[in-house]
Structures are given as C-alpha cells and as structure tokens.
Design a protein that fits this description.
single chain; alpha+beta; Gyrase A, domain 2; four-stranded antiparallel sheet; 3 helices; 4 strands; binds ligand H2B
Length: about 90
C-alpha cells in the first residue's frame, strides 16, 4: 500500500503548474486546438495505463483539466506526484 503524503510533503512535491485541491492535485493544460488537447489526453492515458494509475480528465476546447488522487489510499501519494510529473514531460 502506498502511503498517503503529509500536507508538507504534498507542498514540497507538487510538480510545476499543479495545485492541490483537497485530496486531489489538479492542472489545466492549454492547447491551440481541440485536437491538440485530444492528442495530449491520449498520451496521458497511455502513461496512466503504464502506471496503472488513472486521472480524471475533462477535455474542452483548448483545455484539458487533469485531476489525480490515489483512490486505494484515500488521499495523495507518490503515485500522483510521479504521474503528474510525467504528464508535464509530454506537455512541454
Ligand atoms: C484496483 C485498483 O482500483 C487499481 O489497482 C488502480 C486503478 N487505477 C487507479 N487510479 C487511481 N487514481 N487511484 C487508484 O487507487 C487506482 N487503483
């Protein structure tokens, strides 16, 4: 079982562009087109499957909002931070 992170650990480990929202971390990625957002979401889905750790993604025109939490642990864990950082890598 992955341990739930403390408030201090969460603050320290938040990847660039991500914010904490209760037991979730969230980032809204911006794109020049809807299809660019779809492409990003597809790539993120592949990373999620690889990690067997799945975000909530809301796709709208020019934006993809991504939310992560560890359901099995009932809070935020290293799995969330690691996957968020990997999402940043395919965005930049
Ligand atoms: C059985 C359990 O739901 C699975 O092992 C995985 C699936 N994907 C998951 N995704 C997220 N975000 N949290 C989980 O706890 C989780 N668990």
């Amino acid at each position: 079982m992955t341990d739930v992170l403390s408030d201090e650990e969460i603050s320290e480990q938040l990847p660039d562009g991500w914010d904490r929202d209760g037991d979730e971390i969230v980032r809204t990625y911006e794109f020049d087109s809807y299809l660019d957002g779809i492409g990003f979401a597809s790539g993120a889905a592949g990373l999620a499957e690889e990690a067997w750790h799945h975000p909530e993604m809301t796709i709208t025109w020019g934006e993809v909002e991504v939310r992560l939490t560890t359901h099995d642990a009932g809070g935020l864990t290293a799995k969330d931070m690691d996957l968020a950082a990997r999402f940043n890598e395919i965005y930049d």
